[in-house]
Amino acid sequence: MNEIKDAALAAENGRNKESIGLRGKLQGIPLIAWLIGILAAAVLEHTFGKILAAALDMEKIPVLFGLTVILKEPVMIPKAAIYGVLIYGIPIFTVAWIFRIRSAGNLLAENLLKLPLIIPTLIHLGIFYAALHIWSDLSAYRVLTVKLTLIAVMMTLSLNVINGYMGEFSCSHPGFMALGAYAASAFTVGLFADDRLFGAAVLPEVLGPYLFPAGLVIGGFTAAIGALVIAIPSFRTRGDYLAIISLAFLFIVKSLLENLEVVGGPRGMSSQPDYANLPTVFTWCVLCVWIINNFVRSILGKALNAVRDDETAADAMTINTRRTKMIAFMFGAFWAGVAGGLFAHVLRYVNPATFGIQKLAEVLAMVYFGGLNSVYGSIVGAVSLSMLSEALRPLEIFKWIIIPLLLILVMIFRPTGLISFTEFDPRRIMGPKNRKEGEV
């Protein structure tokens, strides 16, 4: 009997060791190898995607990895699965495994990390953007989805600064986004477009793309001024007052824009120039991630964590708690305003109804789904929920049943989110994970 137990235990240990060994091998592949694999898959789809789709008797290339096709027509599941494996699965894992077997990936990553951090960062971002550009180039819908997802990352990160790192609960982010969207739109439409509200263009249209960043910064500062209006009365008190005041601010901004005919009133604003192309949105998203990550890792960011954990103790340690919270609040609002400016120029139309309770629920869901106090978590939450929302679009009303149920499960089993309280360190992400075989 003991021999049987020993044999079963040995078999179980062998399976665990095999599983850990495979996991260790996959974890030993550096990020650049995965990015090269993704780029290879994007090039393969761009070159042979239509041919393979026709061979599988599919009307067109699946726009979102075949998920929308599966939900519309379940009989297409085998074809979509074959397409996904041949176009995405095999190329990505083959390239990554080649780097793993020859140790070329680790050697490449080690050599890159010997250089100043900016160089390997730009190389990784360049490969990632190339893959993203080639993948999205096959469909206008893909381009729009990628743009809106990048803007969602900016919104989620900026709100996480307030609700996560500062420990307060703000409901005003759609209001900040609206202020940024309208301010940036007024700047570009008033100067570079012929519009029914603002009349003829003031400056030559050719200058528009070069001055567009100034319009986004103006939108960000407009949102920051709005945040200051909230911060002055709110941070004199403690508790849940910020949530109440910020929610009131959201309704005030929405009502104000609906009643201001100079910006279109309830009809909204249109005629925004097409300045928010994919490279522009991607660049601003990267800047947002980089600057917010540096902010939360700075001395001011550590002071913000101290205020969140124990405001009385932080005040006793000579931290100006009110000033720290006001700076963080305005900082988060600034990036929400920039995201709003990009949002208005991606859709080329902006309407007060867009920035209501539903937008607030979406952004809050992304923050708490991804994880508080984590740049990783904000990116994961924004990307996953944005893509999931688009993938479930064929289900129509049932989409708004599935996503809340998913959020409820996350709140039950992971109350702080999927990836919370995790520091975003570029060197740890890009560097090879030197683990021995079988080591977790």
Please explain how this structure is put together.
This protein has 440 residues and is mostly helical. It is built from 18 helices and 2 strands. A two-stranded antiparallel sheet has the order 1-2. Helix 7 packs parallel to helix 11 (278-297).
List the keywords.
single chain; 440 residues; mainly alpha; ABC transporter involved in vitamin B12 uptake, BtuC; two-stranded antiparallel sheet; 18 helices; disordered C terminus
Short structural description:
This protein is mostly helical and 440 residues long. Helix content is 72%, strand content 1%.
Counted beta strands: 2
* Largest sheet entry: 2 strands, antiparallel
- Calculate Rg over CA atoms: 24 Å
Number of domains: 2
CATH architecture descriptor of the largest domain = Orthogonal Bundle
CATH topology assignment of the largest domain: ABC transporter involved in vitamin B12 uptake, BtuC
Q: In oligomeric terms, what are we looking at?
A: single chain
Name the helicity range: over 70%
Mean pLDDT: 84
Spans of at least 5 consecutive residues with low confidence = 16-20, 434-440
Strand order of the largest sheet: 1-2
Strand content: under 5%
Which sequence of SSEs, written as H and E, runs from N to C?
Answer: HHHHHHHHHHEHHHHEHHHH
What is the CA–CA distance across the termini?
32 Å
Q: How would you classify the helix and strand content by structural class?
A: mainly alpha
Gross geometry: globular
Helix count, DSSP H or I runs of 4 or more residues: 18
What is the CATH C-level name of the largest domain?
Answer: Mainly Alpha
